[in-house]
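Students often ask what a 'structure token' actually looks like in practice. Rather than answer in the abstract, let us consider DUF4142 domain-containing protein, a protein of 259 residues. Its sequence is given first.
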Amino acid sequence: MRPRPPVNGRGIFSGTGLIITGLAATLAALIFPIWSYADRSGTGVDVLNAQTVSTKYGPLSALDREFVTKVRLAGLWELPAGQQALQKGTTQAVRTAGQHLVEGHTFLDERVRDVASQLGLALPNEPNDQQKQWLATLSSAQGVEYDRQFANILRIAHGKVFSVVAQVRATTRNSLVRALADDANTTVLDHIKILEATGYVDWDALAQEMASGSTPPITSTPGPPGPTTDPTPAVPVTPSASPTYSLPPPATSPPPSES
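Now compare that with the structural description of the same chain:
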């Protein structure tokens, strides 16, 4: 019997074979980037989960812990700065701004200590070196120069922290931290407005300082581990009633000194 001749169009090079091969290649191309992405470091998910621990209020990230620490640090220097403005401010607008700082950070400091206690976090008890330098600058200034230094140093500091509060509020999965960010947002925005109402803010210098980014925003750098309780459903938190303030009318130029 004569051997049967080969049939054209069969095998991997047939129409059906080419279709199957193409589908397999496409599937491999879709799967490979997923495997590769899972092995990468420095992605948004990595940052979000960096040093994250479980609490009954939801996951607590390094970013969350750093935010809690920074709220405490802000109060440690802005509260005495406000008290100082009540004594050294040469205008009612500056003294009113000082009063807002005192009331706002008294409220926030109570909140942050309560949050830290529930999360088992240790808090600093004195300002950092840069904050001490700001306080020293204010202590050495007198008269109208004091008013200008007070308004601009505090306005720059609040402008930088305002974006930090927004970052934490947008990303945190911890209900306690989220409530604290809400309170911080209200307080910081009030302080920004009251400092601007003094009429001493140098807008050009402020824009340059904010653009320079000399004080970097919060980053999720590894920090000390927090509590390690088993994860449970987040407990809803009702924040304390935020203080309400009335702002003086905004000034378009530095107000005259008062006797």
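One point worth highlighting: DSSP finds eight helices and no strands in the chain. Ask yourself how you might have guessed this from the sequence alone, and why that guess would often be unreliable.
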